[in-house]
What we know:
Blueprint: E1 2-10, H1 17-34, E2 38-41, H2 55-63, E3 70-73, E4 76-77, H3 83-97, E5 103-106, H4 111-116, H5 125-141, E6 145-148, E7 153-156, E8 176-180, H6 186-194, E9 197-201, H7 205-221, E10 232-235, E11 237-239, H8 243-268, H9 288-294, E12 297-299, H10 301-315, E13 321-327, H11 333-351
Parallel strand pairs: 1-2, 1-13, 2-3, 4-5, 5-8, 8-9, 9-10, 10-13, 11-12
Antiparallel strand pairs: 6-7
Helix pairs in contact: 1-2, 1-11, 2-3, 3-5, 6-7, 8-9, 10-11
Amino acid sequence: MKIGMFQTPFVAPERSAVQVFDWAVQQAIVADQAGFSEYWIGEHATLNWEGIPCPELVISAIARQTKQIKVGPLAHLLPYYHPASLAIQTAWLSQILQGRYMLGVATGAYPTDATLRGVKDMSVNHRMMLEAIEIMQHVWKAEPFEFKGEFWNAGYPKAEGKPLRDTRPWGGTMPMAMTGLSAPSPSIKFAATQGYIPASVFAGNDFLRSHFDSYKEIAEQRGRSYSRSIHRVVRDVFVGDSDKEARRLAIEGIGRAWKEYLLPTYQRFGVLPGLLHDRSMRVEDVDVNYLADHVWIVGSPETVVRKFQEWFDDLGGAFGTLLMYSHDYIDNPRPWEESMRRFVMEVAPKLAREI
Length: 355
């Protein structure tokens, strides 16, 4: 199984912009050196727990300080950009990273981000995303076109005299991804129609199976071969010297974001019940102790391997890439960074046979 990171980031609201930026860059460098395969960066304009409004700035800083890791936004909120400008921006980053750039796209789920851009009716966001993708794909061909749409106009001018700058992504195609946080997930289904990478935020195995099954069904209907290796799943992991030590460090770091932000968010989106292993339990009773024992994968390397194997058994098999959430260990990064390294070196190799 490959290991990646989703830098949302879950950094405490009181952190400065400099701290958020430096942490995101440093985490990418550590992940690259540890052998992580991917590093995705979230985008939100108004959320105080997800404080990166410009993932491309972080990606630019990462580009020349890493060697092998692939990076990308997860995701650019397409209704809030002019698609032609974003197409140029992302293609250039693709060229700079020479095959290590991936583009996550989304409609935008938070009303505050929409209000900031003057979008009062978010029911149009999906249509805006579709139109944006159509324009971006035209731009990436670097061929003359003229487009008049419902939301935007765009075009690629004919070269007169000197040729225009190359606007194609590195290698000619743009690897793209979408996230899913519902079941059934319209985003995962759309990703399947396009062949995009599906990234599922963990909310229980029934939730994940619905993503795997719907993607497989649509991919095969479209005549494409299917393997679970295409799937990314986002889940919290902490590896420590012992179960007790790992649990303590996880609750101290991961716990705050869940208590103050993620539990209310999961409840608002209606996905929290999927995390309950006991259906008789009330969602109101879920706390960080329950999460550490039943939702996060926490423990010594041996315990983490066992928990993954049990998870895969119940899930009916493994998937391609586990994306760790990144959390706020800015004041004491050593245990967190050591957990990242041990996950890759001591846990992942023992799960290779599960894929």
